[in-house]
Design a protein that fits this description.
single chain, alpha+beta, Rossmann fold, Tumour Suppressor Smad4, 12-stranded mixed beta sheet
């Protein structure tokens, strides 16, 4: 396991910030004066994704002299020292999926939940000053690597992807169950009949895993959570296994509409007898976070625990 509040992270002089996300145009226009000022004052440059610029009605000339251009989202990270994600947790997951562990990612919460983001619009100016002064901490979060092998295709042709939150195998048809044979380190764990199986990281334990009845883990831990979704047998329960475990699930369903989801950003159909292999990724996500509140404070506030008037 790893445990701690993370190391402080200081941007290099003249750092280039890649800005991307899913925030809506009106929200982007509202935060832009504070965002531009907070980046320009310490001497940062920035590059903006074309998707954000179109939603906000921006062009490169109007974004000021510190702007290094408007680029497709897939190219925003090129030459950047960090990414700033504007939106919810889904936007931050997409940003991490874009860079893996090569760059730190800071999230500005403009969505609905915001477990992973570092700041909110009301605290943006203070957070950017903390960023420039090296007062944000960098948390390295375990990720999962998923490999898919399908019958009739060479193993190297299958999907290989990393997930910060979860890898989910599920039925692609309402009311239809899946049958999954799951092994841990080559030993059979269970034959699951139900709506699906969630493979979650500790970071993802407060996402779909939580709604599926799985446990909450401290996000700095290293482990894999396996949570059956609506199993037909009540004895098939969530289980937490070591981070070094190799999880293999073979799809036994026959209706041909099974789905694999990786952090909700990659979704693809699975055939019968497809094999989904999940293990710890060699890549760790790098999240920039405020010093306070920590995980316990965020969890308490988001889930409204320990409040007298709910």
């Amino acid at each position: 396991m790893t445990r701690g509040d993370g190391q402080g992270w200081s941007p290099p002089p003249g750092a280039v910030v890649g800005i991307l996300g899913s925030a809506r145009g009106e929200g982007l226009r509202a935060i832009w004066p504070a965002l531009r000022k907070g980046l320009e004052e310490p001497g940062f440059a920035f590059r903006v994704s074309g998707e954000l610029a179109r939603r906000a009605g921006w062009d490169a000339a109007a974004l000021g002299p510190a702007c290094r251009g408007v680029a497709p989202e897939a190219e925003v990270a090129q030459g950047a020292d960090l990414l700033l994600s504007l939106g919810g947790d889904g936007s931050l997951l997409s940003a991490v999926g874009l860079v893996g562990g090569s760059l730190p990612v800071m999230g500005l919460h403009m969505g609905s939940m915001g477990y992973l983001t570092a700041t909110i619009p009301e605290l943006l100016a203070d957070s950017l000053r903390d960023l420039a002064a090296g007062r944000l901490r960098e948390e390295r979060r375990m990720m999962l690597r998923v490999r898919v092998e399908e019958p009739g295709r060479p193993p190297e042709a299958g999907l290989v992807a990393d997930a910060l939150n979860d890898v989910v195998v599920s039925s692609g048809l309402p009311g239809r169950v899946v049958r999954l044979a799951t092994r841990i380190d080559d030993e059979i764990l269970f034959m699951l009949t139900g709506d699906g199986l969630i493979h979650a990281t500790p970071t993802g334990s407060t996402a779909y895993n939580l709604g599926g009845g799985g446990p909450i883990l401290d996000p700095t831990m290293e482990a894999i959570v396996l949570t059956p979704v609506m199993p037909h047998s009540i004895t098939v329960r969530p289980i937490v296994v070591a981070a070094g475990s190799r999880v293999e699930t073979r799809v036994r369903s026959r209706h041909g509409k099974m789905m694999l989801s990786v952090d909700g950003r990659l979704n693809l159909p699975l055939k019968e007898d497809a094999v989904v292999r999940v293990e710890r990724s060699p890549v760790a996500a790098r999240l920039l976070k405020a010093q306070v509140p920590g995980f316990v404070g965020v969890l308490r506030d988001k889930l409204k625990w320990n409040q007298e008037d709910l």
